[in-house]
Write a structure and sequence with these properties.
The structure holds 2 protein chains of 2 kinds. In chain A, 48% of the residues lie in helices and 19% in strands. By secondary structure, chain A is of the alpha+beta class. A 7-stranded mixed beta sheet of chain A has the order 15-27-26-25-16-23-24, with helices on both faces. In chain A, strands 7-6-8-14-9-12 form a 6-stranded antiparallel beta sheet, with no helix packed on it. In chain A, strand 21 and strand 22 form a beta hairpin. The radius of gyration of chain A is 34 Å and the shape is elongated. The two termini of chain A are 50 Å apart. Classes of the chains: A alpha+beta, B mainly alpha. Chains A and B meet through helix 5 and helix 6 of A and helix 1 of B. Chain B: Pfam families: FixS. Chain B: InterPro entries: Cyt_oxidase_maturation_cbb3 (IPR004714). Chain B: Keywords: Membrane, Transmembrane, Transmembrane helix. Chain B: This is Cbb3-type cytochrome oxidase assembly protein CcoS.
Chain lengths: 791, 45
Amino acid sequence: MSNKPAGQLAATDTAMLLDDPQEWSAFGRPHGRAAADMPPTQTAWESHVVLEGMHCTACALTIEDALRQVPGVSDVDVSAATRRARVVWNPAQVLPSQWMEAVRKAGYRSIPAMDALAREERRRENRRALWRWLVAGFCMMQVMMYAWPAYQAMPGDLTFEMEQLLRWASWVISLPVVLFACGPFFSSALRDLRQRTVSMDLPVALGMLITFVVSMLGTFDPTGPFGREVYYDSLTMFVFFLLTGRWLELRLRDRTAGALEAVMNRLPDSVLRRTAAGDFERVATRRLKLGDVLRVLPGEAFPADGRILNGSTQADEALLTGESTPVAKQSASPVTAGSYNLSAAVEVVVEALGAQTRFGQIVTLMESASLQKPRLAQLADRVARPFLVGVLLAAALAAAWWWPTDPSHALMVAVAVLVVTCPCALSLATPVAMLTAAGTLARSGVLVRNLQALEALAAVDTVVFDKTGTLTRDRLAVTGTQLGPDAGLTAMQALALAARLAQHSLHPVARAVVAAAEVLPPHDDSWLVGAVEELPGAGLQALGSRNGQQGEAILRLGSVAHARVAPAEGAPQQVVLSAEREGRVTELARFDLSEELRPEAPAVVQQLRDAGIAVELLSGDHGLAVQRVAQRTGIDAAQGACTPQDKLQHLQALQAQGHLVAMVGDGLNDGPVLAGAHASLAFGKSVALAQSRSDIVVLGDNLALVAQTLLLARRTMHIVRQNLWWAAGYNAVGVPLAIAGYMPAWLAGLGMALSSLLVVLNAARLARTAGGDAPANAHAPFSAHGPVGVV
Amino acid sequence: MDILYLLIPLSVVLVLFVLAGLWWAVYRGQFENVEQEGERILRGD
C-alpha cells in the first residue's frame, strides 16, 4: 500500500473514504429483509456504481466476472446499456474500496453512483470521445488529400520522390489517429488479452494494427514482402466511421435509454436552506434533515416531500401522477420530491426525505428494472463470445487462403473480415429497445419494474380487469331517479331538493347528489329548507315547507330505514328522499347510485379489442353492479362476487386453455392473482409502490395508459425482432463478402458503424410515441435537471 | 512543381495547428450546451 505512485494513491484514497459506513447510504442501501433496523456493518449492502470505460456487452460480462471473484460479493448485475452496476456485498468480508479495486484491475473504473460525481465524469468522457472523433475526422480528410494524387496519376506522372513525400505526410497525419483516436479500441483489446477473453474490440484493434503496420512497411520498406501498397486512407476512414458510429450511439443512448436516468436523477444536487439566522444558504441535498425550511425557485425540482409554508405556485407532477396539467399549490399544500416548481419561489418545510418519499420508491423500482437482462439479451450475450472466436478464425483462414496470391491483399482481406463483423448490434438489439420503451413509459407515468414483462405483455391475448375499481373512479354518481307514487313534484325538483339537504354533508353519497344537481337546468324551486342536521351513519334530516302549502314537513335523505319507507327488492344502491307530515311518511324519490365510470373506459376497452385482445372483468362486487359496469364499457365476459380464490381459478382456467393473460389490478390485496398472470399491471393513484408486486405500475389516473402500455410493449417486441434479424442478417452477408475479398476495409468500417447505429436508431423510434411526453418537458424548459426527452 | 516539396510539409504543420485549435474548442466546452446561448435571450436575468 505504501509505495504506490501518487496518482493511484489519490484514487485509492477516495475509495477508502467510501469504506466509512456513513457514506454507504449515499450510493446504496441495506439489502434483504429486516435490514433497515440493524447496524450498517451487520447487514449486506446493495450498492450502485457507474462504470467507466465500458463499450459493449462483453465488457459487462468481464466486470461481472471480476466482481464475482471477490470474496464477500454475493451478487452482481452489470447493465451495458446504462453503464451501471449493482453490487451486493457483505461488510464483514469486504469493503467498497476492495471490490472497486477489483473493477480497476479488470481495466475499468467504478464511481459510486452519487449523481453529481457521475455527471462530471460523463462530461469528461463525452469531451474525450468528441475530441477523438474530431481528430480522426480531420486527419482522415487530410490523408485523403495526400492519397488522391496516387489514385489519379498515370504511370510516370508522379516522381518517386513526390510519392514518397506524400506517403510520409500520410504517415505523419495517421499517427495521431492510430496513437490517440484508436486508443479505446487498443486499450480494451489489451485488456481482453490480459484477461484471456475475447470482446468485440479485439478484432477491430487487430484490424487497425495490421493495416497500419502493412502501410508503414510499404512506406519505409517498399521492396519488402508486403509490397509497396499503403492503406492510410482506408485506415483513417474506417477509424472515423467507427468512432462516428460510437459517438452517435452514445448520444442516442443517453437520450433514449437515458430518459430513465433523467427521471431518476431529477432531484437537485443542492438547495437553499434557511439557517438559524433566518437567511438562506446553499447546502447539498444529502445534508437535509426533517423539519428544514427550504426555498425552492421556479424551474427547480422539489428535493423532498414537504408542505408549503409561504407562497403559492404551480407544480408539474407528471412523473408522479402521469397528469401533465400543472397542479396549483397554496400555503399548506403538500409537495412531492421530484416534481417541478413552475411559477414562483416558495418556502417548503421538509416532511420526508430520500427513500421515504414516493419519488424514492419510484427510483428504487426503476433502478432494479434497468439492471435486469431480458431473456433475449442473455441469449445474445451467450452467442457473442463464440461468435467472436469464429470471426478471428475466419479472418485467419481468409488470410491463409489469399496469402500465396498476394500477402498484402491477404492481410487486407483479413482486416475487412475483422472490421465488418458486428456482434455489438446483436447484443444491443434487445436491451436498447426495452430500455427506450421503459424510458418512454416512465415519462408518461408508467413504471416498468421488470423488463421481461414487456416481452410477456406483448404476447398477451386476454386482459382481465381484476376490480371494478380499475374501470370506475372511486366516487359515486347518481344514475337514475324514481319518483314515489304520490310525490307531487318532478324528478328535477326532487333532485334539487335532495341536493339542498345533501350540501350540508361531506359523505360520498351526499356529494354525488350535489354533483348531479349542479348540472340541472334552472327550474322552479319552491321549497324552503332549514334546520338541516346530519345523523352520522344514517342520513340527513331537515325541516322544509313548500310555498303555498301549510305546515312544515320533516324531510329525510338517506337509507331506506332512515327515510322510514319500505325497502325495495333487489334494488341496487339507492338513497331515498322522504317527507313526513303529521306522522305520515311520503316517499318523494329514490336515487340510484353507482360508481362513476371512468370516461375513457369504453374507448380503452374498444382499443384493446381492436388490437385483438379479449377483455374480461372479475370483481368482488355484487353481480348486478359488475354487470352494469361491464355493459357500459362493452365487456362481454364479466363475473361478479368473486373471492380471490375464484379469480385465481378463473385465471388458471384461462391459462389452461392456452390464453396469455394480463391482469390489471390495484396492486394492493390482489397479490396472488397478479403473480399468477403472465403480466400484471397495478393501476390507480393510490398504488402502494413498496408493497405492490406487479410487473408494471401505472401511476396516473388515466386508464388509457393501460392500453398504451400494451401497444407500446407490442411495438417494442416488434422492434427487438427487427433488430435481431437485421444484426444477424448483416453479419451473415457481410462476413462472406469480406472473406471473398469483395469488401475494402473502409467499406467494412462503414458497414459496422452503420449496423450498430441502425439498431439504436430503430430503438429510438420507441421514444416518440403518443402519450404525453411532451407536456412534461414543456413546463420546465430551463431547468438544469430537466428531463432529457426527445425535444 | 518544386514548391510542392515545401507546401506538403507545410500542410502537415497546418493540420497540427488546426488540431490544436479543435482541442482548445472541445476542452473549453464550446460544443456543450449549444442550446444555451439561444435560450439566454429568454431568461429573465
